[in-house]
Amino acid sequence: MKTWNLDALFTGYETTAYQNTVNTVEHLIQEADAFANSLDKPGDEAARLTRYVELASTLRKNVLKAFAYVNLRLATDAQDDASLAQMNRMQALSSRTTNFSTKVSKWIPTIDNLSSLIDSHDTLKAHRFHFESINERAKHVLSDKEEAIIAKMSQTGSSAWGRLQGLLTSILKVDYEGKTITLPAVRNKAHSRDKDVRKKAYEAEIKAYEKVEHAVAAALNSIKGEVNEIASLRGFDTPLDEAVYNSRLKRETLDALIGAMQKHAPTLRTYLRRKATLLGHEKGLPWYDLFAPIGRSEREFSPKEATDYVVKNFQSFGDDLANLAQRAYDEDWIDWTPREGKRGGAFCSNLHPIKQSRILLNFDGSFSNVITLAHELGHAYHGDRIFSESILNASYTMPVAETASTLCETIVKKAALRDSKDEEALFILEQSLMGTTQVIIDILSRYSFEQNVFEARKASTMSPTQLKNMMIKAQKEAYGDALDPEVLHPYMWINKGHYYSGSLSYYNFPYAFGLLFAKGIYAAFEKRGQSFATDIDTLLRMTGQMKVEDVASLVGIDVSDPAFWDASFKVIEEEVDRFLALTE
After folding, report:
1. Which of 75, 277, 299, 467 has the most crowded Cβ, counting Cβ within 10 A?
2. 356 φ/ψ angles, rounded to the nearest 5 degrees
3. d(C-alpha 496, C-alpha 166), whole Å
4. Which residues pair with 356 in a beta bridge?
5. CATH number of the domain that 142 lies in?
C-alpha cells in the first residue's frame, strides 16, 4: 500500500517546525491587525501597499502550509483526533485574518491614484490584478463587524457541517456480500465486468446511505441556508450569481456553455442508449450499469505500471509534464489505495509554500483509475506552472482549474486509442465517452439540482425524501430516455462533497468548462505541435492573474461565443460516431 509522504510539510504536530509555523501565524495576525488598524490615518500609500504585499504573502504562505498538513492528514484518516483538534485551531486562526482582509479591501478603493502608484513600483506592478480584484470586490464586502461575525460563525456553521458530511461518508460501513467494506470500495465495483457484482454493489451502496441520510440532509440544508443568506447580504441576487462572479467569469459565458451542453446532450444520450442495448436493457440503462465496461482490456495496473503508462504518454506533450509525473511517483506525492477513514474520490492539492503537490486516489488497478491519475497529475502540472508566480497571484478560479487536468486526460486517452485495436480500442473509447458523459450529462443534473436546492431552501428545509426526489427529477431531465427511470441514484447528493462548502457553490459547471475548453486546446495542440505547449504553459501560469475570458484569449479562444463550444463538441460527436460504428 503506497501512501503519500508529508514530510516536506511537517513530520508531526509536536515538532518544532509545526509549532513555529503556527506561532508565526499568530504573530503575523497581530502585525496584520496593527497594519489594518492604521489604514484610517494618513500615510505613504506606496509604502503601505508594498507592506501589504509583504504581510499578505508571508501570512498566506504560513497559513496554507499548516492548513494543508492538517487537511491532508484528515483526508486519509477522518477520525484522527490530533488532526481534528489542529483543524479547529487553524480555523480559529484563519477567522482572525478577517479584520486584515476586510479593512484592506475597504482601504484600497479609497486610493485615488492607485493605478499610477502600481505603475511606479515593480512589486506593486507584479500584483496589479490582485489589487484590481480587491478594488472591484469592495462593493460586496460587508462591515468589519459583519465580516468578522460571518468568519467566526462559519466555523461552527457551514465548515462544521461540511466536515460532518466528509466524516460520515469516510467512515460509512457498507454491508456487501456478508462483509463490511468502505464506500469507495463498493463504488469501485461499479466498474466490474460481472453484472451481478455491479447490481449488488449499487444496491448495497444505496442501502448504506439510509444510515446517514438524515444527518447529511441536515448538513446540506444548513450550508445552503447559510449561503443563501450571505450571498444576499453581499448584494448578489442568487448564489449562482456569486459563484459566477467568484469564478471571474461573465454570465454570458456560462450561459453559452450550459446552452451548448443542453444542445448536444442528445448525442451522448445516443451513446448511452446503444450501451443499454449492448447490455440487454430495453428500458434504458440502469444506474448500476452506467460504468459497466464495454470492450475489453486485460491490463490490470499496479501503481508503478500506471505511472509508467502515464509518463510515456505525457511525453508526447513534453518533458516537463512527463518528468513531473515521474517525480510525483518517486517522491511519494500520491496516496494510492482506499481504506477505512480515507475520503472517497480523488483530488490534487497544490502546495505553493513547498512548490509541490499531493494527490489522493482510491486506486484499484483499472484503466479508469489510470485516467484519474492522469487527471490529478494535470492539476499538479498546473500547480507547477503557477508556483513560479507570487503566492498572491497563484489563486485561480474554478472554471480554469480543470483545464490542465482534462487536457492530461485527453492526452492519455488519445494516445491509448492510437496504440490499441479491436476490443481494447472499443474499451478505451467507451471509457472516454463514459467520462465525458459524467462531465456533460451528469454535471447538467448536478447543476440543476443545486439550483433547485438553493431555491427551495429559501422557503424551508428539505427532508431526505424531498432531496431524493429532487435528485431523481434532475437526473431524468439531464439523461432523458437514456437511463431506466426506475433505476436511478437518489443519493448522489450525499456522495458528492462538492455540495458541502459554504464558500464554493456550484462546483459542477467548471468540470464541463474544463473538458470542452481542454478539447479545444488539444485540437490546437494537435495542429501546431509541441511549440503550442509553451502557449499552454503561459495560459496556466496566468490563470491567477486574469479573468477567464482573458486567459482564454491568450490562445485565441472566445469562450463567450457559443460557436466555440459547438466546435468543441465536434470531437465528442466523432467519438460517439466511432463507438456506434464499432458496436453495430
Report:
1. 467
2. -140, 175
3. 10
4. 351
5. 1.20.140.70
